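ok so I'm stuck.
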Amino acid sequence: MTRVWQWNRPVTVREVLEDLQQERSIAYTTVMTVMDNLHQKGWVRREAEGRAYRYTAVSTRAAYSAALMNEAWSTSDNPAAALVAFFGMMSAEQREALRDAVRVVQYDDESAADTPAEPREPREPRAQAPAEPPSAASGEPSPEPSAEPSAEPSAPPEAEGRSAEHPRPPGR
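replied:
not stuck anymore, here's the structure
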């Protein structure tokens, strides 16, 4: 995946092989098998080009890393303690990157609050609970579901849920 992400374009098994062979001896069939496995797991798409395939990453490296972190965090029986321990392991540069990321998310949330009519990017609509039927006792309809955004922070579009587009990370 590293090679596919580095090039950020469709690649062939031959291109990956030649790049890897600059560092070590490796067989064409090994690279072909790994690329096919990545395709079977849904991490790369492939398109036929003559007798070969061109492989393209389905997800970015950042989304892959986020999925790994989310998976590890979500399996903890004490997520707050896991975060504290994780932050304690970070270098000064990593903590600064975390602060920058939090500022970006806060800025995005503030910008979204300023202009609610302008969606940042298209997303699948979330299912809303249907309004309850009018109360038999009062004859008045129940209030509509709130159009207010959730107080919970939303994940970046790339990290939201797993689908055929974003399956379980390779090697997991």
